Amino acid sequence: MAQGTVQVTHTGTSRWRRRTGEYASLAAALEAAADGDVLTVAPGTYRENLVLQRAVTLRGPENSPGSVRIAPVDGVPLTVRASAVVQDLHVEGQDAAAPAVLVEEGTPELRDLRVVTRSAAGIEVRGSARPTVRRCAVDNPAGIGIAVLDGAGGVFEECEVVAAGQAGVAVRGGAHPRLERCRIHHTSGSGLSATGENSALEAVGCEIYEVRGSGVQITGRATAHLTDCDVHRTTADGVTLDTDAVLTLADCRIHDIPENAVDLRSRSVLTLTRTSVRQFGRNGLSVWDPGTRVDANQCEIFDSTGDYPAVWVSDGATAVLDSCRVHDVPDALFVLDRGSRADVVDSDLSQVRNTAVSVSDGATAQLDDCRIRDAATGAWFRDHGSGGTLANCTVDGTQTGVIVTKGADPTVERCTIDSPAEAGVYVSAGGRGSFLNCRVTGSGGYGFHVIDGSRTTLRKCRTERCARGGYEFADSGADPASGTGPLVEDCTSDESGGLRAPAAPATAVQTVSHSPGVLGAVPGQRTETEPPVPVAEPERSARTSKDVLGELDALVGLESVKREVRALTDMIEVGRRRQQAGLKAASVKRHLVFTGSPGTGKTTVARLYGEILASLGVLEKGHLVEVSRVDLVGEHIGSTAIRTQEAFEKARGGVLFIDEAYALSPEDAGRDFGKEAIDTLVKLMEDHRDAVVVIVAGYTAEMERFLSVNPGVASRFSRTITFSDYGPEDLLRIVEQQAEEHEYRLAAGAAEALGKYFTVLPKGPAFGNGRTARQTFEAMVERHASRVAQLPEPSKDDLTLLYAEDLPELL
């Protein structure tokens, strides 16, 4: 064993009292040293476990980096418990259960250390320690590179994690370090990770790359702030936020990401400013779940390498884009699911291969002062409940400017649609929509094309230079007197095509627009002698339990779920009949626990269950009220009980569906107000046992924990119903149903290719089951559209057949 001597320079209160001594071991030198002394270590290998408990300086010889090795056979090689200075040492750890460098107290300074180890952590900082770590390198292929734990802090400047078997930098337990100009790469876990309440991470001018996982992962109520940082070349998402995480990205660059560039879930909040997102394989921004929100200002999202929307907002999440640019992507913005919302202001969406803005499944999008250019479809409002507003926007160079279908009802006002290859506005399949002060110019087809008796409103609109005509209304046999068809007021045209009004019966009275220009006769207000027929949504007749069970049986898969619901329904029905016969009926607890992964139909089954109970007379209405933690838990004492009571009252007579119910009882609950929500809910369930049915839902393992730690809640539920993941055959059936509903067909070989696709599709945390099948179908439709759009005169088969080649590529 090579070992040199340690020279200790002892300092006194005056210069003449300074003296120097030499010691054969580091332990002896440390024992002799006092605060302020300098220990200069001669080159060699020292098999000692060093513990610095005084404010000394421990350093290797000048101009000889790496010549001093601290390498004990086990334990922690270097422990710092004082405001010492340590520099120019090579530290090697051999103990898999211990860190190589442990900083426990004080404000020490570590400079120019090289830590090479295969241990739990390269550098670990904990407790009250606040070190300054400069120009240190950590190579730990077995564990964490740098761990900051249990309330510790510190500043890391120009440090490098050259390899880590887990996270490059991990922050937990309320720790709050700051990283400046650091590099973290070649990690087998996340590059930067922060988790737990009060944990905070700040990084400035850092680079995270070559990461086998997420580049940055913030979870469990932790917060982080990254400025002027680069995240690139990861194998998973670039940035991941989950469970009330809060992250700010300013002047950052996220690129070369095979999955989502940024993925947010479970009430996380992200703020991006002057940040660029490019070269991503899935979504640039992926935003999920109620309470989850992203605010992007002056950001750029572009150059997608996959076939997915650049911005994806679903499951009740919110996204705000202000002064942003989204370009060179398959689709720019998809907003779907009830409660989801996107607000886009003064932004550019351009070079979009398919749809710039898609709104579906009851979602809302608000675009103000935006510019959409060079897209197949400018904005598509797809189905009932979907809507929003386009105001003061320009849509230029699209195939179709705005599409409204299947009961969607947006408001489009003061917008200009220029040079669409086909229609400027196309409304079909019962779409609605209000178009106010809009203009369509240079259309290759019609300006406004409204078919199927769609109840669209056009006011003060104008068309110019439309090749096939300014306005085309085709009712497909609908009778205008029935209240179907468009409502047109004060619209004008330059006469290039004229207006083709829907045929009206002889008794109908029509008026002519008073605005300048020739528009022909348009449907106007009826005379007082013939009052207008009110337009009302048809009332939905109450269905029997048999009818509702039939709809349940029609759902793909879920065989065990169907058996459970049917058995429960039979019990309730027989009990009701026994009561009518004057017999005792068994008490049936109607509250349920639904467990399983997202996208397995839990919400749909809950809705049908409520309707079944209403048909049996068990519930008054049977409606569904869906809530999550953010709807029940307040920010201060007392507000939680009020929120929970309000949610319960909304559900009175129906079903209260609590998604991710386990979030009400987190493992590190502490003073969390979720317990107040649980206590309030249990009391309400007892006091109003016949008024509301409560269903709690979530991942299987988390719900088992939730019920085990809350016996009061567990006792209120009759049974747990497990929703298994869909198999490849079920996912294929969902796609086939989607195709039939949208009037597409699977060509020969496509079904087999879909089955293989779903078999090999990765089933990771982001896998959405039924939603994944729907996304796959939508991706096939978009690829089909890109292919068929190139055909000069496509046949009916060309327009309806989906081939195996339309499948999205597996990444």
From TrEMBL:
Q: Where is the Carbohydrate-binding/sugar hydrolysis domain?
A: 41-172, 313-474
Give every AAA+ ATPase domain span: 588-727
InterPro entries linked to this entry: AAA+_ATPase, AAA_lid_6, ATPase_AAA_core, Beta_helix, Carb-bd_sugar_hydrolysis-dom, CbxX/CfxQ, CbxX/CfxQ_RuBisCO_ESX, P-loop_NTPase
For this UniProt record, give its keywords in alphabetical order, as a comma-separated list.
ATP-binding, Nucleotide-binding, Repeat
Query: Which is one GO molecular function term here?
Result: ATP hydrolysis activity
Q: Name one Pfam family in it.
A: AAA
- Region (Disordered) residue spans: 477-544
Highest taxon, organism lineage: Bacteria
Q: Where is the composition biased (Low complexity)?
A: 501-512
Q: Which family does it belong to?
A: Belongs to the CbxX/CfxQ family.
Q: What is this protein called?
A: Sporulation protein
UniProt organism field: Streptomyces variegatus
Record lineage = Bacteria, Bacillati, Actinomycetota, Actinomycetes, Kitasatosporales
